[in-house]
Amino acid sequence: MIERLKGLRSLDIEVATRAAIAAAVPLLILVALGRVDWAPYASFGAMAALYGRSEPYETRWRSVSTAAVGMVVSVGLGILVAVAGAPLGLVAAVLGLVIVGGVLLTVTLGLFPPTPLFFVFGFLICAEIPTTADEIGIRMVITIAAAGFAVLLSLSGWVLRRAAGGREGRYFSSLGRLPTPRPRAYRDAAVWINIAQLVLGSAVAGSIALLAGVGHPTWAVVSVVAVVPPPRAPHSASRSVHRIIGTVIGVGVSAAVLLPDPPAVVIVLVIAVCQFAAEILVGRNYGAALVFVTPLALSISHLASTAPVPGLLLDRVIATTLGATVGLLAVLTARFATRRSDPAAG
Q: Could you tell me the residue range of the domain that residue 311 belongs to?
């Protein structure tokens, strides 16, 4: 980990700072207005800033704006499901659509992070927040405003680089990451295997959590999506174990942050710091990034929840372990199936 951090460039700090600002500004505005219960909508809109890192602006605008639309649609679906009372069958059906759409979107456009995790997370959390029909508009406005701010912030460096002219290399790091769009990704069997892993794994983890009476089964589903790698990524058990460890450690970090019951403004700052750290690490070690993604997620959820923190944390440790285990089994199953169908791959 230390060796990975030694490779940090000024560009890494730049993009991570933008991601942190994208999260902090709308949340601080909500704190000032006394409406921290709207924090999840602003937070998920702000997650658009996690996309398009290190890309030239001619492709970044597409990546970030597409991610913003994906986050807004995911949150919007969650709000509509919440208004309908979040019946289990409807949640499961729409979750399947979000997974399919999220995977196809990330693979087809070459988005990074190459996972539907944030889309799934945004949908599930917003689906479980009690909402009435007259609140749809304001919650969507908050999400769209935060996503729009994240897009503008992500593209803001274009103005400075234009002003630098031919001296760009002297003042700014080069933008070398080019996404690899795959317009025919929907024809790739590996993409649909990945979708099947996520859909079936989510259904299994969620069902076990419900039958076992685990509180907040949503986190079991989120953990499945966090553990299963994207299409054609190495299906390594060690990688999945690293993700499990990162998630569980992240729950411990969350306990240290939330158990003292800090004021909302402190939680907002924690969210900003976690978004900064997650952006730094997500391209280097996803398991390490989950140490910060987890408290980021739990802090967002906590701002909109009145439930006692100790019970929530215990539920989330159990649900996280369950979901991560199911995700690992999905990884091993796909690995075994791949080796059976193609002995040369083993």
A: 2-163+182-345
